[in-house]
């Protein structure tokens, strides 16, 4: 590490403020960056060249690009590993450390691995260390130790804020360069809502740092700022900078992740946009030049070198050699020469085709232009000390002393968004790009990614794409679109690209993928092993599977494979890209710690009366109403007086129409044709395996009109379940989900009738409203309710189904009416104990994936005499009815009532024989009782069961099988 470098000042393109220092530490040493720096540029400013060591060979790695195209600059920041330093804003107090080193980055003790490449050919981990078999466990441990770059501290706690936003957009523009900004402005001019995503901290793209002329007297960087100001002032354009797209899905669902900068209250923010149309204007990155030691610290992309100087005020070296294949490389050489960089020569891969004004500018500055030459090798142990150039044919070589090699084979379109959206690509021999031949629906490409380089042509392409997106949104822009197309056609089209793949070298240390240390030699080894297409080679060599994905190898790998085949007409085939397109932290994907849940209409009432709320599926529900987790008082009050339960989460549905009954017959196991008006019908649903998936009650409200309930867990799936199982029948019926539109109050206990009678004029006597009956009536104030007399908790009980907006009013009526009877709330835990004592089943507690209707004692619900209905699960129910070795639900009672097993505890003898579904100490029975699902041979009464639990020191808890129900076997309490 050297002294802090003096920054270039007074540059109109600067994005840093050298007067505002930001302190941070690197390897424990206090340093300073400046406002606007990234972690990487701050380290470069302080003389750091080696950021860490590579994955496999522990080679020194340094800055190569500035857009996170590889793992070269991954460091540990504030305890978080694998942070991409080049795209991470510098913040005050950051503690930065190198990773994947043993010792220091400059002197890594594992650096000897670089000389062991002969022992690690492509796919070596598939072919070695597994014979003899006894060697593999030891080898596996060592491989796991060596895998990965950074190490995650299990004690690390992240206290940052992670947000998520879901902006609405007609048009989503990906890329904030000139094409993207013009597209956004064109769409916004049609009155559309536009969201613009840009990965860099500012808009501008390829114009943002360049001083070449856009027009006479107007440099490109100023044109970028003018467009940016126009975009930011548009009311219907929402701009997200420092935002990387991470995924594209069906129907233009775009996901992205935004990194918080100085002044932002969040660390990262997940963004999800459903757009009617999408414009992809992501531009190009530079295609790496392949030569020996092409990833040595001191080898930079041309754009990286120029941006270091123009954007951050840092000259990238003292003495440089350029080896490029495009005019942007020549432009960078001219610009950096003017800024003070000494350039020995510019080797241009192309024999001809250079812009004459750039050739003349190099000549004026005394910089030699070597046409048809290319970098063949970089020498230097830890950085660049010498560059070896060669002719394309490899016949002549020259050596130059330098500390910087600016290398770029050409350009690569950033077509990842199109790739993720299932666009189809083919190699274009004119541009040397993989261009789309089949675009995803309502998605448009614009700008440099089509091979355009002329500034006006880039902007015209963006305007045309923005208007095409507006047309997708229903705007009449035919005339404007035709004008835009004519203007674009009159401007220079796609430029001829460089197709050189690599210098004439052997490729032993020519890296095609920096992340995985994959060399050209490895690719050739894979091809010799029979892997002849890029997709297979990618998997065998791991090229392109690191955090940079396609950034470094994505273009070169298919070109190299096509060249190695050497067959006439061999066409390069691109590899696919997978989500996420760029690395994203798990915290960003998890989002904010919001509990995204549903609340019942009585949530506030429940909390007001002391309800302890717990998450149950998608709902928040009251679990307890006191600090006593046994809920003894709640239970005793229901058994002796009267209690209130909020059961609004039950699924509630109306099904009506001429064929409604047929649909019910299809999905319910009982004969639903036997329903009687004014009575409820309890039944169950099974899947095709005969396994229980749901239960509930059905009532007939009128001719071809039914109302039914489902369990809470199935409420969100019921509509699709019925639709799926009737999809080919052409039946005429309608299904309406009323789950959120209606709430449910369960009033239960011996005094429930007295309380209910106080709030309604309807006759609720046992004779007028018997057990299993359904009635509709009004309560005080004329509020209509649907009432069912059920007995889930084993007591006299009514379910009152009430419109959600009236739920608080009816609840308060019941509380007031029940005061003299000791009415009080009870929660889910009390309900769980009450129903367990009664032996009633809860789907998911007493059932599991393999549990049939017969196993849980509900086989009596199955009607065998309705074959015309093709009941879902009927065939399996018939096959499993007589199977003796299946499971069976039984009641259990503990021999020692002071021992109550935990839910889910296993029942064992010489093997696992079942599990305890639920067990509690029952104050009603003065015993520990429960329900268990176990092998049928153990289900006989008085069978002794051994229950194993962790921490029991080998001592099993003992239970015996008893008859169900535990409480009120004759059911008298439900019928009083």
Could you explain the architecture of this structure?
- The model has no long low-confidence stretch (mean pLDDT 93).
- It contains 23 helices and 51 strands.
- It has seven domains: 1-157, Ubiquitin-like (UB roll) (Roll); 162-285 and 413-490, FAD/NAD(P)-binding domain, CATH 3.50.50.60; 291-408, 3-Layer(bba) Sandwich (FAD/NAD(P)-binding domain), CATH 3.50.50.60; 511-582, no CATH class; 598-649 and 741-835, Probable tRNA modification gtpase trme, domain 1 (Gyrase A, domain 2, 2-Layer Sandwich); 651-737, Aminomethyltransferase beta-barrel domains (Alpha-Beta Plaits); 879-975, Aminomethyltransferase beta-barrel domains (Elongation Factor Tu (Ef-tu), domain 3, Beta Barrel).
- It is an alpha+beta fold and 976 residues long.
- The strands form 13 sheets. Strands 8, 9, 10, 13, 14, 15, 16 and 29 form an eight-stranded mixed beta sheet that branches. Strands 42-43-44-41-35-45 form a six-stranded mixed beta sheet. It has a six-stranded antiparallel barrel with strand order 46-49-48-47-50-51.
- Helix 4 packs parallel to helix 5 (220-233), helix 6 (302-310) runs parallel beside helix 7 and helix 10 (455-472) packs antiparallel against helix 11 (478-490).
- The chain is elongated and about 110 Å long.
- 22% of the residues lie in helices and 28% in strands.
